[in-house]
Amino acid sequence: MIKHSAECRVIYGDTDGFGIVYHANYFRWFEIGRAEFFRALGTSYKEITEKGVHLPISEAYCKFIKALKYDDILLVETKIDGRVKGGMKFDFRIFVKGDETPSATGFTRHACVGDDKKIIRPPKFLLDLVKNSLFSDK
Amino acid sequence: MIKHSAECRVIYGDTDGFGIVYHANYFRWFEIGRAEFFRALGTSYKEITEKGVHLPISEAYCKFIKALKYDDILLVETKIDGRVKGGMKFDFRIFVKGDETPSATGFTRHACVGDDKKIIRPPKFLLDLVKNSLFSDK
Amino acid sequence: MIKHSAECRVIYGDTDGFGIVYHANYFRWFEIGRAEFFRALGTSYKEITEKGVHLPISEAYCKFIKALKYDDILLVETKIDGRVKGGMKFDFRIFVKGDETPSATGFTRHACVGDDKKIIRPPKFLLDLVKNSLFSDK
Amino acid sequence: MIKHSAECRVIYGDTDGFGIVYHANYFRWFEIGRAEFFRALGTSYKEITEKGVHLPISEAYCKFIKALKYDDILLVETKIDGRVKGGMKFDFRIFVKGDETPSATGFTRHACVGDDKKIIRPPKFLLDLVKNSLFSDK
User: What is the C-alpha to C-alpha distance for residues C91 and C87, in angstroms, rounded to an integer?
Assistant: First the structure.
């Protein structure tokens, strides 16, 4: 199964007055995880939207395990949840580079809609992508 | 039970290229909900932290039901989950002003830590606040 | 001349690890200032865009005079610079409520474009608005 | 003179409802530019702050020349302005990768303060860094 890992670095703009990363910003890294996951599969979210397919978010969850600090280098690991039909679900783990246990875990669920924002079935090219990511031995 | 409702307005900086609010920004409104909830109880999160008590977030979840748009007026309804011990949990509903069904629902869970960032029991003044919010008939 | 003043409150999500507001967030308040300025003139930026007129930003400047802190109540004062033709310029001052000297000053310049993102002359209804704001004795 | 160039990619969270990058987010990229500039000189802003030296921002300016779009790859070019004494000034240019003309230019000015947030003279190690960046032939 493809697990894609994207690298990010914490900036001051990500932190808050408690001296650690503000929680809402983890969801920006989840977005980066999804984007780089699609790129690793040979496409991009931009390309998908240009084909008239959009994946608006329907649910987002994050468990904050260890605080992230300014200048930390993060690895955002992204996998697809293959059990989900009629939309997509991504699972994430955020690691500080070098750490073996994650600093955060979470998921996002997405509907599949057309340019008119109406729900559609995930088109074949997207289902094939998902299948490839699940059965690849990378 | 006290349900506090804070009013916010969507700005361009909250929206994204899909023409609706970017999901991570809902968690900013949840923060505003918590802040105004404490204020409605006669204190403030600032006052609580000045007493050496901090409530770092341990989990955050949001379900995005209806898209929010530029210039929408939002009501963020905040309640405390009275069943939770050893920390705090807040439940949120976001409504577009005038709507009867929520545009989003969610929760945040928080640990209770001291100035040294170590876990502490919620102090009596905080437990009393929670109790007041639950048994008030406001 | 109309000087409009909008009220905002600093949240944790606005602050950074240095314990004060992260500088980029001042530009969000400038946006709120512009929005409330138009509302004070009897219209809204949303209404203006629905007439096919957009005001994308071409320059932004801020001078940070006194640090802003968590839970500060801010007043964002917005005026139009009447000397500017072929676009719009807004001047801002941010005060902590109760302070007589500003915590920040700044400006934003805006082009005037149509729905096709091409430059247009500011339409009459917008010029009239500006004139009203300058010669009103409010 | 050292001109450092950092690479970033535009995410949905950076864009706004007009379909382009929200202006306030350019200042986040300027921050990334400064951070990578210091790293290119063999130190880091984190290391500088650990020596008790902070560079809070006193002015920020950006000129928005060409709109930036979702998934654009950006190069943030950062130089130091060697004429400035008693603080630091950085000049920035943001390019879409492959473009020869910048999409944005700007600057930030910074005071130099100690851990107690009082103004100090830039210490020797920082002045040496600046000198190295100006007279290096990299």
Answer: 14
CATH of the domain at C26: 3.10.129.10
Residue B106 lies in domain: 4-135
* C-alpha distance from A14 to closest chain C C-alpha (Å): 7
**Which member of D24, D28, D108 has the closest CB to residue C28?**
D24
| Token code pair at residue A103 | 């600093």
Closest CA of chain A from B137, distance in Å: 32
The pLDDT tens digits of the residues spanning C27-45 come to: 999 999 999 999 998 999 9
* A75/D62 Cα distance (integer angstroms): 31
- What's the rounded Cα separation, in Å, for the pair B25 and A24? 7
Contact status of A63 with chain D (Cβ, < 8 Å)? no
Q: Residue B21 has what DSSP assignment?
A: B
Cα–Cα distances in Å, from B38 out to B8, B130, B132? 17, 10, 11
Number of structural domains found in chain B: 1
Total beta-carbon pairs less than 8 A apart between chain B and chain C = 30
Strand, helix or coil for residue B132: helix
Tell me the C-alpha to C-alpha distance, in Å, between residue C121 and each of B71, C87, C110, D19: 25, 8, 12, 22
A13 touches chain D (CB under 8 A): yes
pLDDT tens for A19-73 read: 999 999 999 999 999 999 999 989 999 999 999 999 999 999 999 999 999 999 9
Query: In angstroms, what CA-CA distances link D14 with A106, B18, D69?
Result: 21, 12, 9
Find where tokens 């109309």 sit: C2
* Nearest C-alpha neighbor of A59 from the set A103, A106, A116, A93: A106
Residue C17: half-sphere exposure toward Cβ, Cα within 13 Å = 19
- Rounded to whole angstroms, the Cα distance separating D91 from A79 reads 40
Q: How far is A32 from chain D (nearest CA, A)?
A: 7
- What are the backbone angles phi and psi of residue D82, rounded to the nearest 5°? -70, -10
Q: Which of A71, A72, A76 has the most D C-beta neighbours within 10 Å, making it the best mutation to test the interface with D? A: A71
pTM of the model: 0.95
- For chain C, the average pLDDT equals 93
* Chain B touched by D81 (CB under 8 Å): no
Are C11 and C70 within 8 A, CB to CB? Answer: yes
C60 touches chain B (CB under 8 A): no
Q: Do D54 and C18 touch (CB under 8 A)?
A: yes
Do the chains contact at C56 and D63, CB–CB below 8 Å?
no
- Chain A residue numbers with beta carbons less than 8 Å from the beta carbon of D12 are 31
| Alpha helices by DSSP H, chain A | 26-40, 45-50, 124-135
ipTM summary value: 0.94
Q: Does B73 touch chain C (CB under 8 A)?
A: no
How far apart are the C-alpha atoms of A55 and A48, rounded to whole Å? 9
